[in-house]
Predict the 3D structure of the following.
Amino acid sequence: METSNHTSEFEDGTVTSGTNLSYWFSSNIKTLTFEKLSQNIDTDILVIGGGIAGLTTAYCLAKSGRKVILVEDGYIGSGETGRTTAHLTCALDDRYYELEENFDVQAAKLIANSHMAAIEWIANTVEDHNIDCHFKRVDGYLFLSSSDTVETLEKEYEATKRAGLTTEMLNYIPSVVSENSNLCIKFSDQAQFHILLYLTGLAEAFISLGGKIYTQTKAENITDQGATANGFTVKANHIVVATNTPINDWITMHTKQWPYRSYVIGIKILKGKLPYALWWDTGDMSSKWIVKPYHYVRLEEYDEQYDLLIAGGEDHRTGQADDENINEEDRYAKLEKWTKKHFPVTGVVEFKWSGQVMEPLDSLAYIGKNTGEDNIYIITGDSGNGMTHGTLGGIIINDIITGKENPWIEIYSPSRISLKKTGDYLHEVGNMVAQFADWIVPEDIKEVTDLKPGEGGIISVGLKKITAYRDEQNNLHTCSAVCPHLGAILQWNADEKTFDCPMHGSRFTKLGNVINGPASSDLKKITHNEPKI
């Protein structure tokens, strides 16, 4: 094991999904690198995925005395965990009064308790292992979006009290210029941290317990006996799939959650201009999406003179940005305008990136035994609360495997059925089915000669749909535009320079390499001869 500059590992574009590295990777921190798997191996537990969910699970099980191996196809944190804004909060994406409607009051209490316990678990782990990751206890503030009404805050405040949370209704919003009511709900004792510094410390703690990590090691052919990785066999008694969206499940889980793309900017501001805190608005009630896009903001340490104001939002279904006639690149400008209106501080955008969020049907992550499996477990459905959901994943799966009682196992079970959300389910399934219409709609570009260096798109050649990308050396790269998961036609993402599936969120590099499941294979290469000029 050796340390290296993490950012240098991503220049080839095969690990990160595009051109926009998140602030965490751009901040030039030292992180850990590990060897690739290069032999057959046996273990008790195989964890697939090196984000917060996988590392927390591996650490918990190693601490329980189990033999654990973790494999990651990129590097630690190089997936969606490295694109988080790292809010640690019990103020969930979905309202507590909605959770009461979906489940009941007692379940909402359990959910609130679980997220507060996850924050406490992270705090204790940081202290126990002396992890220097900028961990801070902060307050959070939920305020109205311009399209929402005061009734939302009033209902949510009462529901948080029933859930046992420490909240307070304020008649002002600290540091925020409101477009609507000045009321907000204060959530006390939330937290924040630097995610890569935290993962580095957690990985070191896992290794000190006897754990083993292999990076640049892609797991495939997952069964109840283990998996293959880099062509070698990994035998295991228990397999944990912690890969943002499950790569072992072909259909079932992908009809219970939906992929959304979210955008983030980082603005450098003078220290002392804003307090360290978390802020969220209640979301755009006029949005066409079932999951109403909201804005989320916090402050992060930058250097001795400056802090970084990190703001996110402008979400849309993956691969469907054009449905709102707002392309991916323009969403950063919208986000900057919103941020500077509500936080009128001077500064320019220093960083920008996007990430993928899996939105579960009933607002809760899916954590536990994969449906129909006895020894394969999944952690997915982060719903914008990936830091606490990922942490809960490690706690819950450790308790399932080691036979400990845990009051959260049932509520987060992947096999749960959400009858009260049937309408939303049918709407989103209809959206997925509608994506097959892309087989007959016009292509992005008429001819490959239309492409300039650095541009991509979808073209039609006879009955075939083809991805086309022209690199900076003017070379043309073409692949099948059919997602190998379930056959939807991919869409070009000009911001990330990826080809994204609008059905289930699989994503591929500009050269056709898979970087997000549920697809597990690369796009089929297609030879396409350019017309001679």
The longest helix spans residues 105-128. Residues 1-18, 435-441 have pLDDT under 50 and may be disordered. The first strand starts at residue 2 and ends at 5. Residues 146 and 179 are 6 Å apart (CA to CA).
